[in-house]
Amino acid sequence: MDTCARIRFAAGRRGAVPPTLPGTAALGLVAVTTGLTPILTTPVIAQEREAAAVEWVVPRTPYGHPDLQGNWSNATVTPIQRPEGQGPTHTWEAVARIEGFVRTARQRGARDSDPDRDAPPAGGIFTGDPRSDAASGGTGGYNSFYIDSGDLVAVFNGEPRTSLIVYPENGRTPALTDEGRQRRAERRRFASQFGQYDNPENRPLAERCIMSFGSNGGPPMLPNYFYNNNYTIVQTPDHVMIMTEMVHDVRIIRLGERKPLPAHIRPWMGDSWGRWEGDTLVVETTNLHPNQTLQGVAPSEEFKVIERFTRADEHTINYEFTVEDPIMWSGPWRGEVPFRRLDGLVYEYACHEGNYALENVLRGARAQERQEGR
Description:
alpha+beta, two-stranded antiparallel ribbon, 374 residues, globular
């Protein structure tokens, strides 16, 4: 068990723990054919939530801004990009089947491991789930108990969504431009001269605990479909702080008149400025770090994200985002993600605490170079 898993075990499970499943994008297609008995999510519950929202009043901070503070989660089984052949929304019956399938699989996957089982065979055991296989390296080190990827379909303004991307209309990112394809190819050619783990600089950002897995830290802030999709928001009169549990990334969003960074300064998570439009916090981010990829695409110097945070009810923030990068993508793309209130604490993600692996891998590589006379 790695340090991350030990901390989560000691802290206790926060809410539902889903199973290790096949690719998230396929989940909806698989689940709607299972025929499981509908549970929990029904039109009646949705109507009750809508009625409660009519009576709800947006809470405000002492200085008059809508109050976004607290702990939130964007964990969901709804994929970022829509599976082929689906429309933009599920029926409530399909939602019930999907969520029932997830809970059943979660219970099956969280059963105690056999303490007398044999060691994994040479080369490891790979499940076909890229999330689990990447985390365990084929060792079987993670079972479903330690995974918290979400077990609910994303419901935004009362609509159960089949994808988090809502524009383009097919729910998928637009095609790359000619220059975007060329830049991506050049980036891959440069990287191909090194092994991915040959030196510290080539190792993945998440593996080095520099940035969140996937795009948890953002912008845009998206679920990683593995674990720790949790956030803490704190507000002051002139700043908003968003702490991401995954790798404890912290975004500092300044409010007021925008004073952008010079174009050549591109920090992790970019340069974010916010303003209030009515009861919605609007955040514009530019200058994203060139190594902070989004959906596998490195941002250009013209990358920009517009985010909108709106309290929808006592338990929900409606999070909307628009990505623009005319150099890399053939058009903008937009998404909507419900952030649900987290009934629990957000714990420290001590990613490399007590981890001797990186030091030993590099020491071994230097020893191999000496033996080869390099």
